[in-house]
Design a protein that fits this description.
seven-stranded mixed beta sheet, Enolase-like, domain 1, binds nicotinamide-adenine-dinucleotide, FAD/NAD(P)-binding domain, alpha/beta, globular, 3 domains
């Protein structure tokens, strides 16, 4: 057995792990990252990046399909899956090469192999033992599946869906959360007949009610069917079809069934019990700064309860590296972490929904909703949607909720408003460029400050 030592040993080189490594190296620490697959993890190889490449191709297809409406002659001839795959893989390969070079340039050692925590809190990889003054767990998550829909010939998770070598003609999607909605959107753009089956009574059920409503309206217009408040009882797959029976006795037949019912933390078999790291329902228990129940063992990313988002993992990684280095600073706040669903239209939000705000502040909540129909730029690019701002009455902005094409790029302003606890009156004097979609947000702030311009 060979022993190695470093200031920091990381288990997992995905978004949380590599962000911790980069920040720790910047702070002068020696860092070892143990990774069994590829640096970049789910987000770069099987999640955020490749799915957004597919969604961009889907958007191009929609634009070509709608070109005549703006006086451009063009026609959709179909999807060339080989070239679509090359485009998607090319993006990932470039980002992967860049990330690998970045870690190398910061002097970070990457060890290829499967690591496991020992009873002493070290990390064993095959015959090698890595002793870290601190160890950070960042092993990520994997798609959750359900017994009634076993993954197989016709039943997929997002991982298989991503690399599918065809556009299915008919799909059923189980789960109307972020993944379900994004795949529904892209497959519909590519011409598929899509039905989303969601157990709760609305799409994107964790978002503000107004977001779910606006998205549902847009999806209906796009011909995407939804079965809300429905559960799958059984599935049957053959060589060329899958039949899904719902709890009301109805059945749906499709070429593929996508199961998108959440992601489970990857914490089995990594030695947590031996090391005494406490977990709850598979998630690692931590304090607000990422400390586990074992001194000098930390956790970041999807294995920590809360929003399973790459950018939250980045921030947690930065935070853990800084806390280890003795730096002060605020804990990572879920309340200012933006959430974006990259469907068509997009949904983006930060902070409290109206319902959460009312739970926290009772009647002292004011809300303004601005319809994108009043926004020139949205009209020009042909998107419907809305902006909703939630504030404490006479107090700060608590939440910002957006639906519409391209609104994911607008959420940053909402994030600053919520993060800095700004009042609409503070923002009202700042003009928004005309014509931009950001003006819609400006209109909502103006209205909440009591001086609506284009709004009533
Ligand atoms: P999710 O938790 O967002 O949504 C799962 C949905 O499935 C929920 O609405 C739930 O009510 C429903 N559901 C659960 N069991 C069901 C059943 N048996 N029948 C019908 N519906 C059922 O999970 P997801 O969409 O799988 O995404 C997983 C994670 O990955 C999320 O945390 C998400 O935030 C993250 N993610 C984020 C992005 C992004 O930020 N754009 C993209 C992809 C994934």
């Amino acid at each position: 057995m060979t022993e190695h030592s470093a200031d920091l040993v990381l288990l997992g080189g995905g978004s949380g792990g590599y962000a911790t490594a980069l920040r720790a190296a910047e702070l002068g620490r020696s860092v070892v990252v143990v990774e069994k697959d590829k640096l970049g993890g789910t987000c770069l190889h099987r999640g955020c990046v490749p799915t957004k490449a597919l969604l961009h191709a889907a958007e191009v297809m929609d634009h070509v399909r709608d070109a005549a409406a703006v006086g451009v002659n063009a026609a959709v001839e179909g999807v060339d899956v080989t070239r679509l795959t090359a485009y998607r893989e090319g993006i990932v390969a470039k980002k992967y090469a860049g990330l690998t070079a970045l870690l190398t340039s910061r002097g970070i050692t990457v060890v290829a192999g499967e690591g496991r925590l020992t009873a002493d809190g070290d990390v064993r990889v095959g015959d090698d033992l890595y002793r870290g003054t601190d160890v950070v767990l960042a092993t990520g998550s994997a798609p959750r599946t359900i017994g009634a829909a076993p993954v197989g010939r016709r039943i997929l998770t997002s991982e298989e869906a991503l690399t599918l070598d065809e556009v299915p003609a008919r799909v059923v999607i189980l789960g109307g959360g972020v993944i379900g909605v994004e795949f529904a959107s892209l497959w519909r753009s590519f011409g598929a007949e899509v039905t989303v089956v969601e157990a709760l009574d609305r799409l994107l059920p964790t978002e503000d009610d107004a977001v779910s409503k606006a998205l549902a309206r847009a999806f209906r217009k796009r011909g995407i069917a939804s079965r809300l408040g429905a559960r799958v009882v059984t599935t049957e797959q053959s060589d060329d079809a899958v039949t899904v029976t719902l709890d009301d006795g109805s059945a749906l037949t499709a070429d593929r069934l996508l199961v998108a019912v959440g992601r489970r933390p990857l914490t089995e078999g990594i030695g947590l019990d031996e090391a005494g790291v406490a977990t709850e329902s598979g998630f690692v228990t931590t304090d607000a700064d990422g400390r586990t129940t074992v001194p000098h063992v930390w956790a970041v990313g999807d294995i920590v309860p809360g929003l399973q988002l790459a950018h939250r993992a980045f921030q947690q990684g930065i935070r853990v590296a800084e806390v280890i280095a003795g730096q002060a600073g605020p804990a990572v706040a879920e309340s200012t972490t933006p959430r974006v669903t990259y469907s068509r239209p997009e949904a983006a939000s930060v902070g409290l929904t109206e319902a959460q705000a009312r739970e926290a502040h009772g009647d002292r909540v004011s809300v303004y909703e601005y319809n994108l129909a009043g926004n020139a730029k949205s009209e020009i690019i042909g998107t419907a949607g809305m902006v909703k701002v939630v504030r404490e009455t006479d107090g700060p902005i608590l939440g910002v909720h957006l639906v519409g094409d391209r609104v994911g790029e607008l959420i940053t302003e909402g994030q600053l408003a919520v993060g800095w606890e700004a009042h609409p009156e503070d923002i009202a004097p700042f003009v928004h460029a005309h014509p931009t979609q950001s003006e819609a947000l400006g209109e909502a702030f103006l209205a909440l400050a009591g001086k609506p311009l284009h709004a009533v």
